[in-house]
Amino acid sequence: MKGVLTLTEKFDEYKKRDRIDSDYKEEYAAEVAPQHIDYDDKDNAEVRSSAAGSTAGFIALALAILSLFTFPTLFGLVSVLLGIYAYNRGATVTGGTAAIVGGIAALIAILFRVALIGLLFSLF
């Protein structure tokens, strides 16, 4: 019987047709592929720069306050340098305050040491 197909012949015919011309005409590449995102490096660098300045400003301010109580010459001078760095990076208030407070603490400590050494030399 030529017109009657068995199940296996029907399945084989379906598989041939599926290989040649697929019934599924969908495209999955758009859902699977990652989307292209444009990054503006200029804005990203600016944010990174201001964040670095802000962090440096707060560290410099902490060192400046610490210099009022212990190791005023060391912590004062470090806070001045770090404060100037933070000021140039955009943290003007914290950087400037840290540089001024640290500079005053270091200057007073150095003047006190010079006066103390002068006093000791005047005794002999």
Written account of the structure:
The termini are far apart. The protein has a domain at 47-124. The chain is 77% helix and 0% strand. The protein has helices spanning 7-20, 29-32, 41-67, 72-89, 92-123. With 124 residues, the protein is mainly alpha-helical. The longest helix is centred in the C-terminal third of the chain and has 32 residues, at 92-123. The protein has 5 helices and no strands. Helix 3 packs antiparallel against helix 4 (72-89) and helix 4 packs antiparallel against helix 5 (92-123).
Summary of the model, kept short:
The protein is mostly helical.
Q: Which key terms come to mind for this protein?
A:
124 residues; mainly alpha; 5 helices; rod-shaped
- The number of helical segments is 5
Q: Structural class, from secondary structure content?
A: mainly alpha
Overall pLDDT, averaged? 81
First-last Cα distance: 134 Å
What's the main sheet like?
A: none
Identify the overall geometry.
Answer: rod-shaped
Query: How much of the residues is beta strand, in percent?
Result: under 5%
Estimated radius of gyration: 37 Å
N-to-C SSE string, H for helix and E for strand:
HHHHH
**Helix content range:** over 70%
**Overall number of strands:** 0
Low-confidence stretches: none
